[in-house]
């Protein structure tokens, strides 16, 4: 059975990159070595793997990648940190927190 991975990298500028692959180790090396000059991560190296999930169904891996790409930065951080409470909170209160959580108060 083939395995697929959806993953989140943190780039040197602090941004996140979400991707999907069937060979996580090879793909991470490609990001790190800058194989593709047109890639988002090319000028943002080094990169660090922050999160990944394995799938046996390629369509599930692709769906998860698309879902994560639509998430706010704050929500991605909650996933990376396994902060399930805030992950749910940010999902339910999108208008309160905004796409990047800019309106989050310290209360």
Automatic annotation (TrEMBL):
<dbReference type="InterPro" id="IPR035901">
    <property type="entry name" value="GIY-YIG_endonuc_sf"/>
</dbReference>
<dbReference type="InterPro" id="IPR050190">
    <property type="entry name" value="UPF0213_domain"/>
</dbReference>
<protein>
    <submittedName>
        <fullName>GIY-YIG nuclease family protein</fullName>
    </submittedName>
</protein>
<dbReference type="Pfam" id="PF01541">
    <property type="entry name" value="GIY-YIG"/>
</dbReference>
<comment type="similarity">
    <text>Belongs to the UPF0213 family.</text>
</comment>
<feature type="domain" description="GIY-YIG">
    <location>
        <begin position="2"/>
        <end position="78"/>
    </location>
</feature>
<dbReference type="InterPro" id="IPR000305">
    <property type="entry name" value="GIY-YIG_endonuc"/>
</dbReference>
């Amino acid at each position: 059975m083939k395995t697929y991975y959806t993953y989140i990298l943190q780039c040197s500028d602090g941004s996140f990159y979400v991707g999907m692959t069937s060979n996580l180790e090879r793909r991470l090396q490609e990001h790190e070595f800058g194989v593709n000059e047109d890639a988002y991560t090319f000028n943002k190296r080094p990169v660090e793997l922050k999160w990944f999930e394995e799938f046996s169904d390629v369509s599930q891996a692709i769906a998860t990648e698309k879902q994560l790409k639509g998430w706010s930065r704050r929500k991605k951080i909650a996933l990376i940190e396994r902060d399930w409470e805030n992950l749910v909170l940010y999902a339910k209160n999108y208008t309160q927190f905004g796409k990047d959580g800019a309106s989050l108060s310290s209360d």
